[in-house]
Design brief:
Length: 438
Amino acid sequence: MNPPEIDIVNLLIRQGRIIDPSRGLDRVGDVLISGGKIAAVFESVSEPPSPIEVFPAEGLIVCPGFVDLHCHLRQPGFEEKETIATGTLAAARGGFTTICCMPNTEPALDTPEIVNHVRRSAQTDAVVRVLPIAAVTVGRRGEALTDLAALAEAGAVAFSDDGNPVWDGEIMRRALLVSKALGRPIVDHCEDPTLSRGGVMNEGAVSKELGLKGIPAEAEERMVERDIALARATGGRLHIAHVSTAGSVERIRRAKAEGIGITAEVTPHHLTLTEEAVRSHGAMAKVNPPLRTEKDLEAMTSALRDGTIDAIATDHAPHTAEEKSRPFDRAPFGISGLETAFATALALVHRGTMDLGTLISRLTVGPARVIGKDPVLGTLRVGTPADIAIFDPNAEWSVTPEDFASKGKNAPYAGRRLRGRIVATIAEGRLVYALGRG
């Protein structure tokens, strides 16, 4: 599949509603791109430079390209699930112009050589920007700290053992100390394995009815509490991945009020689905941390709205059809989410539980600040890379996983009618996706 990628010298996006939370901007106007960068943002350009391509955007929203803090590209080692090429095509379709790839590959991203290999592959195969997140511990086994400084020098923007917690408290303490010196966050998969071991969905009424072993909220909350205490003691940069419980939200809110250097993310599926989805979608709704309750969902939404949670991240986790067709307790965790993330999250706006500017902020400047890329990413500031998402907030479409660019068709939204669609994605001045063109 070849993306509709066009090298653009000059492009004028004409008369869209421009929303840029990084600048407090919300107005109808024109955006001029030149040489791959934002050249100007005007109310109107009466005499644009020539030669120029014009993109009519009347009735559409024009905003910074989305930044995903948390996705799985599976390369190297699991190319049957996803590749850098297919994953970045999926990202472009979802409005994402920057994605941070997790290190649970084979081999893990735990040496500068492997990080450099991913960066080189992205230079040739990716249609959007790929920023590697390297492992905290060797092989993600939790036993020995990697050379975080060397990994940062190789281009890692953060560190995580995602999929596994850093279960050894002393190793986590040392990692946070180094994160402070490097100015790069530890992305924390918060899970106490002594509490979650063998669990496959949220522990509660639904798991009992289905006869499935549950994962209690305490499995997440206990580790959140431990690592907040370590961040307090070290002054390190702590980022809590895929928050899923109301109790975690309250602990993060208190830590922020205390001035601890902590940030957090939530996924679209934890904002829009509960454990009830397991009844109808089976393994397609199996994810770690698990889908929780309506009370937890409401807490996530409130925290996203008030800034306790800084970012929406997809946790895009593609798997093969064979893997997801196994019995629920043997199927892998994960949802393929890059292509549905924006539209599912936009439901919060359509329901009136969040304003559009806040939602865009949590997809753009919010995640950019987590990895220290503000004001370079997540903004339409003049002189920055021309990373832009253009969308129709009211366009309706049906989710057809078979048509995904991603190799992963494992989505619990199959057949669902969504409202809000990406019309075009521009990455560093190149049109990498246009609706109806690939």
